[in-house]
Amino acid sequence: MEFDEAEKLCQKSLEIHREHNAPASIEEAGDRRLMALIYEAKEEYESALEELVLASMVMIDAGQENEVAAIDVGIGNIYMSLCRFDEAIFSYQKALTVFKSTRGDDHPAVALVYNRLADVYCKTGKLRESRSYCDNALRIFSKPVTGTAAEEIASGLTEISAIYEALNEHGEALKILHMAMKLVKDTPGQHSMVAGIEAQLGLMFYKVGKYGEARGSFENAVAKLRASGDAKSVFFGILLNHLGLASVQLYRIEEAVELFEGAREILEQECGSCHSDTLGVYSNLAATYDALGRVEDATVILEYILKLREEKLGTANPEVADEKRRLAVLLKEAGRARIRKGNSLVNLLGPARRG
């Protein structure tokens, strides 16, 4: 996740290509695709788009039709991030035409593009079109061509499930996630993928108010990541936060505090104290401290959050005003030296507020 260092190394590689290789080589195109991934991870989408376009031009000249189509999918993803939806659809449709022609109508690459199109149509409110592309992708993944890896199918099914959930078809989404889980749960080396599916199950249960089931799924995901040695990642920190929120809904407040503190430690280390995910955990932790009567601890955190949000967003932003109101309540209570009741946490957080 050290993207700045990765960018420097990739830039050095591109300089070597320019000095020692023929212009616009396939190897250089490969490194440009890598640089695009780095820029995308850093949310520098225009730079990522530029690298992908340059890589595509090289592959077109080299007659690498399938590689051009794969790059078109990447270009579509960048357009999605930029909310340039019409251009995203155009890029995906170009890739779809090539993959159908070269690999056949039932190839997983075709299903992948169906997933992307379903997502963009869902985001633009064209739900019938979105559902149609989801159904087409599900048809392919339900009867995959021989030789398709189980993890590739499971990944595709997980994407489909997320779109069905966005379409408010929770039952169908859960069914598809269980299909994905069945494919990889006993596959060696797939702890992280299984943990991701468990986490998505937990989120679905949480959204429909099944907090006990949500907590169970989050706990399973945590256990699998710990078993795979992945207990210091950003994903693990976010997962601890979600488990803490489920514990809050079950009134296991002291347990939630430990989980939020664990999430804070990881996200501070991996993302920094100013990152939105870290700030969300700070807010959750302040609320749980308040619920346990640790008003001074809660106040210190909220003052810190308020300072960061004012610096980043300005004093007139609605999020800043919200934090000011919460802080004012805590300062008033601290002045009266009164311990708040446990249900104050629910009042502060609201339903599924900072997941």
- The outline comes out as globular
How would you characterize the largest beta sheet? Answer: none
Order of helix and strand elements from N to C terminus? HHHHHHHHHHHHHHHHH
**Tally of helical segments:** 17
Residues in β-strands, percent: under 5%
Structural class: mainly alpha
Poorly predicted regions = 334-354
Distance between the termini: 22 Å
Number of strands: 0
The average pLDDT is 85
Pfam families: TPR_10, TPR_12
Keywords: TPR repeat
TPR repeats: 69-102
Protein name: Kinesin light chain
Detailed description of the structure:
The protein is an all-alpha fold. Helix content is 79%, strand content 0%. The protein contains 17 helices and no strands. α1 packs antiparallel against α2 and α6 packs antiparallel against α7. The chain is globular. The C terminus is likely disordered.
Features:
TPR_rpt, Kinesin light chain, disordered C terminus, mainly alpha, single chain, 355 residues, 79% helix, TPR repeat
Tell me the layout of helices and strands.
Blueprint: H1 3-20, H2 26-41, H3 45-61, H4 65-81, H5 85-103, H6 108-123, H7 127-142, H8 150-166, H9 170-184, H10 191-207, H11 211-227, H12 234-249, H13 253-270, H14 276-291, H15 295-313, H16 318-336, H17 344-349
Helix pairs in contact: 1-2, 2-3, 3-4, 4-5, 5-6, 6-7, 6-8, 7-8, 8-9, 8-10, 9-10, 10-11, 11-12, 12-13, 12-14, 13-14, 14-15, 15-16
